[in-house]
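Input record, target 12 of the design panel.
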């Protein structure tokens, strides 16, 4: 496995911390790490609210990347509560497509960390409305 994946996994695991922030907000049940084209790792956790104001861990990590002045994603990994990895939801895929229209196809996503199975964003979003 490429060393960057284990660095991403450890970075995401370091912020995985399920907790209740208030009567209305929980967070940290899922954590994500993205690697930008520059090679820097950005992390984020899911934030869940009682009125749909929250965000997925992947988008939180992507917004962290954007906050720090970068625009292009190279790899994405998210850790579920049981330690396994999963594919991004439709909203997160949509954000990546809109951020990288015309070049999102090669974004790599970790599907199964133990088996080191990855997939390209273009494979799971082959007929997106933005080419
Ligand atoms: Zn999502």
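The sequence produced for target 12 reads:
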């Amino acid at each position: 496995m490429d060393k960057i994946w284990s660095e991403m996994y450890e970075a995401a695991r370091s912020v995985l911390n399920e907790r209740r922030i208030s009567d209305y907000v929980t967070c940290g049940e899922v954590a994500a790490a993205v690697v930008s084209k520059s090679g820097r790792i950005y992390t984020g956790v899911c934030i869940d609210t009682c009125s749909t104001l929250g965000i997925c861990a992947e988008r939180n990590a992507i917004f962290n990347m954007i906050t720090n002045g970068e625009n292009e994603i190279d790899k994405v990994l998210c850790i579920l509560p049981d330690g396994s990895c999963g594919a991004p939801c439709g909203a997160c895929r949509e954000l990546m497509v809109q951020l990288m229209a015309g070049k999102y196809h090669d974004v790599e996503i970790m599907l199964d960390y133990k088996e080191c199975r990855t997939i390209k964003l273009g494979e799971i979003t082959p007929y997106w409305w933005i080419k």
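The mean pLDDT is 96.
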